[in-house]
Design a protein that fits this description.
The structure is a single chain. By secondary structure, this protein is an alpha+beta fold. Among the domains are: 94 residues, Conserved hypothetical protein from pyrococcus furiosus pfu- 392566-001, ParB domain, CATH 3.90.1530.10; 64 residues, no CATH class. The chain has seven helices and four strands. A four-stranded mixed β-sheet has the order 1-4-2-3. The radius of gyration is 27 Å and the shape is globular.
Length: 230
Amino acid sequence: MVTAKTSRSVPVKKRARLRAVTYLAMTSTSNYPVVAPEHIKQSRIIDLTLYKGNPRVHSDIQIERLVNSLKEFGFTNPVLVDDTGNVIAGHGRIAAAKKIGLQTVPTITLSHLSEDQRKAYIIADNQLALNSSWDDDLLKKELEKLENNGFDLSLLGWGDDIPTFADEPDYGSLEDFDDPTSELANDVMKAIQIEFRPEDYEEAKEVVAEARKKGIYIGQELVNALKSLS
């Protein structure tokens, strides 16, 4: 008669190895590479190549704010590069590092990405950050705490345009006023007022300014964008 072996018949060392293998299998993330601290290294800026096709624009104002952040908090966000030193993410941080005279920057090499993935992540790294929003109530409380402790709020990324959290204005009363542009000739450009949240204002100015440089008719683009949402 054949009897099934129980766990008691398995040597202690072998059972320990089996448990270890099972644990590794459960915690393995081979399909989702995780960067560890030992993967961060210092690279010379002159050895890094900025991606000429990077569509993200870094204004002088943003670079200056990155400079202030580096001075206050340190270089906390490493530059991402490929195996040959081509920059994937961190173009703005490199510009800020150059401005304060740094010769090297911390980098992480993303060897697991294909060429298309690298190009895609250059865009995704910027866009994903824009998809989040602020909880105004919590943000207001945190800013008040920092301000009460004497922390310089201009270092948080807004510069001097710190959110004021003013109550939403009532635009209903404006319906009682005549349209001041109604008497203008049909070929004269007219303007309407558009409100932005404080955290979106600087980016909106940069986007509009860049569009004007390219001769884009912003009014029609706005109308088309709003129509696509309905």
